[in-house]
## 1
Amino acid sequence: MTEPLDPDEYERPRPTRVGPVRVRVPAKINLHLQVGPLRQDGYHELTTVYQAIGLYDELTARPGDTLTLTMEGEGTGELPLDGSNLVIRAARALAAYTGRQPHARLHLRKHIPLAAGLAGGSADAAAALVACDVLWDTNLGRDELAHIAASVGSDVPFLVLGGTALGTGRGERVSPVLAPPHSWHWVVAIADGGLSTPEVYRELDRLREAGLPLTDAVPPEALMAALRQRDPEVLAAALANDLQDASLSLWPALVDTLEAGLDCGALAGMVSGSGPTCVFLCADSRHAMAVADELGAMNVARTVLTAAGPVAGARVC
Ligand code: C5P
């Protein structure tokens, strides 16, 4: 006969976390971004390959009597901290899903610039989901978090996942790309200002109405093969971004940034997502540092830095 359980064993209250929960979340770039036609719901059908790169925001969640957000770093004073902020929207979405009160004191340390095509806002939303899930002891799995993430924004599920992943639908359906472990080395040229993602998509629709052809909706096989081969020259030839024409149309000086990166010896350059950040693929970390040094001196970007990918998505640290 087994001993009956000591009632304390199962009546013991679940531990509530009183200490802060700190979550680090990366920026994303799109190695391949194929934009289909405009859908009825105002989104475009996408086939994209995301990669999370080592440029991070950090979100700290503490217990609180209401839901508050404070911040420091990139965008402080510009970014609204009210219910329109994706962090607050994500915390509320998790609370609604789990039946919790959305009470937390959230603090964001931002390094990822705003409206840069690096999904900084979506990254912060992913961080809020992961942090509040721990703070509130709701313990959802990554799949459930990704489900809530999709209701907050198209890129948010990827930033919960991280790594390199194929995104379909409006970008919210993500599955990891299987490839042998390898670090890709990027130079990231951050512009002095931002571009609105909806405006860039609208500009693409306008250019297409004016005759810019739709690209064929095929899975990015060459890119997948390049990732498996771990050959930067092959990957360089397979990078593609349908939003680039629209970003360049709205911000023509980015052509100079792209040319400058190639002049500095990068293997390839492209606009990241909806821009205006430009990213340059390099052969290895030393090459990336050399390109970044030279590009930084050319005055074609506000900040030039290096970042490797893929890295993990939003994680408690
Ligand atoms: O999903 P998210 O809120 O991040 O998207 C921001 C905007 O980008 C959308 O309102 C839409 O204008 C545009 N978008 C799009 N098609 C997608 C993703 C985003 O048109 N697949």
## 2
Amino acid sequence: MKYSKILATGGYLPEKVLRNADLEKMVATSAEWIWERTGIEERHIAAPQETTCDLAEQAARQALQAAAVEPAAIDLIIVATTTPDYIFPSVASQLQERLGSYGCAAFDVQAVCTGFVYALSIADQFIRTGATRRALVVGAETFSRIINWQDRSTCILFGDGAGAVVVEAADEPGILSSRLHADGRHRELLWVPAGVSTGYDTTRQNAAYVAMSGSEVFKFAVNTLSRIAREILEASRMTIADIDWLVPHQANERILVATARKLHLPLERVINTVSTHANTSAASVPLALDVAVRDGRIQRGDTVLLEAFGGGFTWGAVLLNY
Ligand code: ACO
């Protein structure tokens, strides 16, 4: 068993939908401005009592059901999230308790929007070494909880959700390769400047809200996402023509279009859920993958490139045969 393979996917979006027209009543913006600058029309927002683990559980159960795998057969759970229910225990640990896969390894990964790509790559390493046979990998976020809903430059961009995959050891790929990167020098372009050891403050200036230099993040994201795609393809001796589907992080439709253009990849081969999901951070890639698997675009045997870029900065890609 040299490889790991995705058996099935799952996804979950909270019931409440927040449309651009609703945001017009909250901040000085317009539905057209949001749509033109981002491609976003609506986003899902978790109910007040709904936590990241609630979202993760729904997506995980759907993936397990689609894979016909019992929770007890899972021996590794990784949850990628920036918005855990508690400082500890991890969401993965809570999820394990809810699913009843007691005893298996469970931990969270924090790489913001690149979190799921990091988590899937980690699961792949565990499976390739033989340490794990069957892993549940989840990206789940309640990003709405770290948004200042009076800041029009950030509140229009994000939504809540969860996506999950079940990954199993296999004789054939599966996951072909993965590449992970980070550059901590750009911290202040995209961050939540509050935390455990630096302290929280409930006043507006230092509250735990996303702060972002939008246009700088935009430029960095486009350059990085096209570079990481080329890097992983070259390392695998493949070209963009070998890719059936690109599943990128869903931050902004203009970033998707600019990245596809730089790669000379037709937009028909890019999975785009920005308009209805907005940016769900670590949940965005597995949610988009789940949508495309369920609507039949991504078929068994297709070559798929997952890629993401996020706070840190972090970025990465996973190349796989679905
Ligand atoms: N409604 C109306 N006007 C607005 C809004 C709004 N919601 N937000 C900003 N503006 C105004 C600005 O104040 C500015 O006005 P000014 O020219 O009078 O100063 C004007 O619109 C243009 O602002 P820009 O920031 O230059 O607009 P831009 O075209 O860059 O679009 C956006 C802004 C959508 C935020 C874009 O920069 C973007 O998507 N950046 C990337 C963001 C992103 O992807 N972040 C997440 C990364 S992943 C992660 O890890 C979380």
